[in-house]
Amino acid sequence: MDSGISITSGHRDRGLTRMNTDMKYIVLVVILLVVQVFVLAQSALQEMVKTEQAFSKMGEEKNTRDAFLAFIADDGLLFRPGAVNGKKWLLEHPAPPTDKKPLLAWQPSFAGMSASGDMGFTTGPWEFKGDVKDEKPSGYGHFITVWKKQADGTWKFVVDLGISHPQSGGPQTLWQPADANKTSSFKPVDEAKERQSLLDRDRSYSTDKFAAFASPEVRLYRQGNLPYIGSQTATEAVAKTKGHIAWQPIGGDVSRAGDLGYTHGTYEVTDDAKKVTEKGSYVRIWRKQGNVWRIVMDVVNVH
């Protein structure tokens, strides 16, 4: 009996050894999980950028329409000029016959990724040639694309919008992100609740509140101008807006981590006589900073 219930020092030592071993194992597992999440976040950013580059490459080698059909999500939005289901619109509007080969070339030069690695965005310069043989482009601009990881693990874009401006926005060179998303872990949120919170935040926005809503690194895209980068530059540009702007959100989405999201909608500009002088669509990309949704990209498309 005694031998069955007594605990000798040797048994205690082995018990402590097992406990120490178990603790070391648990610590190792936690470290590996943290590293794994970090690597996944890193690869998500790189995969997304490489997907954008593959999207561009297909457009160059095949044609723009087929490239868009290959990379757009089933619910992806294009603006023609208002928001439409992009895949449906493309299928209903075949490219007109031509003896030329138009070339729309673009490359990402900046990107962002959610901590959950399921939603991100890319932006960069684009240029257009009426025919690939043309010596110089006939059009320039910047694009923004919002990407979402699909159930099968592939990346498809859910929003694509851009602006045009008279000068080149930069060289068409391959870009590799210098840094990955540094967030090592995340807590999944109630996406429906967070989506509603973001839409409410968007509804509370007005042009005179831009500085308070903008992230320090905000990018403002307006037709006919190169991007305004940084809060001060963007705020100064917004301050020059003439007339009253009424914004009307339509929809949006958020990442599983609830730290990155986008909204889109329509707007109207009216003068002092309340006459409508401009209509268009907008897309805003938001990032949660200090538990507050702030604008990191603001783009309008004049109708």
Description:
32% of the residues lie in helices and 36% in strands. It folds into two domains: 32-165, Nuclear Transport Factor 2, Chain: A; 191-302, Nuclear Transport Factor 2, Chain: A (Roll), CATH 3.10.450. It has helices at 2-5, 9-61, 64-71, 86-92, 191-203, 210-213, 231-239; strands spanning 72-79, 83-85, 103-106, 110-113, 119-129, 139-149, 155-165, 214-221, 228-229, 244-254, 260-270, 276-289, 292-302. The protein is an alpha+beta fold and 303 residues long. Strands 1, 2, 3, 4, 5, 6 and 7 form a seven-stranded mixed β-sheet that branches. A six-stranded mixed β-sheet has the order 9-8-13-12-11-10. Residues 1-21 and 23-41 have low confidence and may be disordered. The chain contains seven helices and 13 strands. α2 packs antiparallel against α3 (64-71).
Q: From the helix content, strand content and strand pairing, which structural class follows?
A: alpha+beta
Percent of residues in helices comes to: 25-40%
| Overall CATH architecture of the largest domain | Roll
Assigned CATH class of the largest domain: Alpha Beta
| Unreliable stretches | 1-21, 23-41
**Overall morphology:** globular
- Domain count: 2
The CATH topology name of the largest domain reads Nuclear Transport Factor 2, Chain: A
- Average pLDDT, rounded to a whole number, is 88
